[in-house]
Batch of 3 targets.
Target 1
Amino acid sequence: MKITVIGAGYVGLVSGVCFSELGHEVICVDHIEAKVDMLNRGEVPIYEPGLQALIKANRERGRLRFSTDLRASVQPSDIIIIAVGTPSLPSGQANLSFIEQAAQEIGQAMNGYKIIVTKSTVPVGTNERIRDIVAKCTNVPFDIASVPEFLREGTAVQDTMNPDRIVIGTDSPSAGQQLTTLHQSLTSNIIVTDIRSAEMIKYASNAFLATKISFINEIANICEKVGADVTKVAYGMGFDQRIGASFLKAGIGYGGSCFPKDTQALIQIAGQMDYDFKLLKSVVEVNRQQRYNVIRKLVSLLGQLTGKTIGIWGLAFKPETDDVRDSPAYEIIAALSDMGAVVKAYDPIAADNFRHHCDVSGLIYCENAREAAWQSDALCILTEWEEFRQIPLSDIESWLKSPYLIDGRNIYEEEQLAETQLVYYSVGRPGMNRGVKETAPFIML
Ligand code: UDX
């Protein structure tokens, strides 16, 4: 099939590249000229394992092209995929201006029947709005479909090539059939449903996963009070197939480009219909508070933070990505800096993005993990990069000025700690707290 993908961001680029890998002829369109130039030079604007090799291979096979010309790219294709951004407005609502503009430009370019697919996460009813916008611009027949994307950053290629399921929301049986054919080599779990349910499946899935994370984080906070270990609790819970073992890792809360934005958007969507989504509001608030647990623990160890030097390992919202959007590291570092601490940070690949997108005055960027820990009053681990796991605790102990280690991602085990004198705090594992009687009282910040 001939496919045009509009928007070469995370979702659009990975989807387009994967469709070309499956043998389709793909054009990825983006209005940012510098990005398209980069891709045409074989460079990749995002860090995503495996992506660069697929781009190179499929460009060489002549199946993958990049362009800024939407009209010329839409006309030869049978399927047009909209994958532009839907950033949050200050109210939390999704900003649909990029979607609406794409719909209008597609409408103006229509030269024959096409299926217009939306992969961007959009509020319920948006695909119908897209249909109206396109229909105002053309008399050429077309169908619309919502095919939400569930890929995770860091494993985006793998997730796209091996999805748990494909959801196709459409009111056209023939479009449903063609899109089923397009995806059938990827999975046998293809769900064809109505458009509004497909739109809702995406929000409900992300909100549910965010709920699991906030739930286990609150269990971790209670474990700290009652002397249980959250990793053991999660392990024991995960065997129940109704619960499932994934997304039960306690830590400093979720971040990234999807969960924070989509939970807020769903609260707004419900609110517009006069429905108060209390559960999801609590999930968001728990997530916000969880970030500050790191600060509470630092304060309980060091007292006043003014003039104290705090080392930070990890700026990305999770490992294997250079994405810092809504990274917990930002709020934690900003709070430390407001409290007068000197903050030194290291991340294997996300430092440049952090420097450009997160405005924290006075933050010192370090070249390596040792430099961030060196002579610091405490070290905080905020992203569970494999590189950090490989560093012996005895090295950390010898680099720090005071032996305080706050592990926001529970990356160390008891046996590793036994060999050191480090004072160690992790999340929801009070049995592993060393040199400390109890955690700071849970003050809301
Ligand atoms: C998420 C969804 O998983 C994906 O289906 C959707 O399409 C986009 O949003 P992503 O944001 O790439 O993907 O990352 P994910 O791996 O889901 O992690 C999100 C956040 O949750 C990270 O900050 C991560 O550290 C945190 N997390 C995840 C936890 O704190 N605990 C867990 O058990 C799992």
Target 2
Amino acid sequence: MQSFLKELVEKHRPFTREGKLADYIPQLAKQNPSALGVSVRTCEGGVYSAGDCPIEFTLQSISKVITLILALMDRGEEEVFDHVGMEPTGNPFNSIYDLEVNSPGKPLNPMINAGALVVSSLIEGSTVEERLERILTLVRDMAENPDIGVDEAVYHSERVTGYRNRSMAYFLKEFGIVDDVESTLELYFKHCSISVTCDDLARMGLCLARYGEDEKGRQVVPRPIARLVKTFMVTCGMYNASGEFAIKVGIPAKSGVSGGILASVPERMGIGVFGPALDEKGNSHAGVRLLKDLSREWNLSIF
Ligand code: DON
């Protein structure tokens, strides 16, 4: 297994040259474009990794899975889905179009930026710090790593350049869907900047693969919520490439513009991938290819 992962990284590293770093968040443009790494943790206790696994990167949109879990734990399904829909979109993750034209005031799903802003606004706590701490606690529990924190440089970089997210948050306020715009944006930028490694992602994926149970047997995420978020990962996790990813890879997964992918194969394994050179839809270019080969070789498709 270990040597196969090594081969995969070697085979796919050249494809990193075809991708592009996210530069609309200036700090992300400082990442190494040729980095590529993969970590796997299986339900049987197997731990495997290859490539640039020690590198830390920020969760970005992968944090949308975590905030959805927490909002569902805090508010329940009915209240959350009063505010945000369940349908995939054919438009990019940061599109304002759907919000205005197709679903005024109710973002299509929690995995696109508009939907994630609404979800962030639903997380309980009296201050941004308290709410962030609750998100961090869940990430640390799922990853079984108490040292996980926020990358302040990435946070500040997005805070001063996040014009489109700011616009969407104000648009949502007009419809009464988001109340306190500034604290919602603050929390959103912070949870996007939570810093992890491939192995942290593999453990988080494993927790979801075990229906919310960590390796010590603690139920960190309620079982029905673990099932629900994996369904969103299949239908919306790779944005407007989710259909193609489901066909070619067939694993619940969530990407982020820093180049991370969190993948979870139910009852089998968690996988963390990092490759910051992105394709035109904002997913790790080499990372998606690597997962495709991994899925084919190990027969991981859930379909
Ligand atoms: O809001 C943003 O644009 C970023 N903080 C996160 C976007 C993202 O990760 C999209 N993923 N592919």
Target 3
Amino acid sequence: MTKPVWIKHITQLATLASEMKGPRAKEAMSELGLIEDGSLWLEDGIIQAVGTTTELENLYEERAHEAEIIDATGHIVTPGLVDPHTHVVYGGSREREFEMRLEGATYMEIMNAGGGIHATTRMTREATEEELIEQTTKRLDSFLQHGVTTVEGKSGYGMNLETELKQLRVMKMLQDAHAIDLVPTFMGAHAVPPDFKGREDEFVDYLIDHMLPIVAEEKLAEFNDVFCEKGVYTPEQSERILEAGKKLGLTPKIHADEIEPYGGAELAAKVGAISAEHLLKASDEGILAMATSGTIACLLPATALYLREQAAAGRKMIDSGVAVAISTDCNPGSSPTTSMPLVMNLACISMRLTPAESLTAATYNAACAINRQDQVGSLEVGKKADVVLWNVKSYQELQYLFGVNHVKSVWKKGVQVV
Ligand code: NIG
Ligand code: FE
């Protein structure tokens, strides 16, 4: 039995608690549910009480001797961060492409010449399950070190049945073996496999008829994602894939309007996607359609920075009523990072989110983007005891001192892991 944990005298406790259910938009993204001199009681993996230190002393003083007591004077505490978009399971790495891009090659040129996603696909196909587990474990450890306690992960470096299933099974194994909660997404349509080039519709048929049913039957994924982009999958092909997944119980997500405006945001709204990702080039109509449909914009400012592109219009999206989440996009090509704190900084610097909006985007709204808002994303009684203690005294300072990992301690389901 692990001891209860009693965190007391938290200078600023950002609970992110709210009466409102569902993704937060507009002003609601600034409501952090702050408590001064706050306190938390964690027990049995769950948050048992949240309030001021005085309130919890009234409730728990008699049980104080049972608990590990943490004095958080001078620190802030937030929910464990949630990363709702990663490609964390992959083989190998692509540092040579980084160099090539700095020498002038573009992301799509490298991919069309057989590098990029195709290179990682080859390395992932070659890797054994054990090798993938070992490499992914290191990345998940790094996520924890950066305060992230829930991570979505996509397949998509297989693009054949065998390797797509291998990636999803690795996630399933790590869900049991690693402290982090992993949420699986099938992304068989991450690129067009070289042997299907020019026959994209045939691959779409194959994916719909032979891959999706097995993924759904084996319950290997909750979400179904597609790279809707010029030169990859058209909006029509993407729609077919996402609708087919819906029939099998897989919720749509979509990589949309990353490199060129392509109607991806509009499609996300049309198919009722839970989130649309990237959106660097989303149109005004697409943004309005997402605000109306309640589709979450999952924005990836580290990817934009890494590709040296203008970040998505996060400020405009929030002002237009779109609920925004943020994510690392952790992958070996366009965003090889596990640092959600850096992504929070970049959300402020390059997309003009306020520090409060950025924290909401990395916690509660991120949880909504993977349908986990009933379990994580805010510090409320009954939710998982996923908690981060930071070496800063205010949430503004967390966003202001940028590029630094301010994590002091992390509890996952009430157990200290960092
Ligand atoms: O989200 N845009 C497509 N997929 C990934 C990149 C994957 C890769 O380069 O390996 C992304 O950025
Ligand atoms: Fe991605």
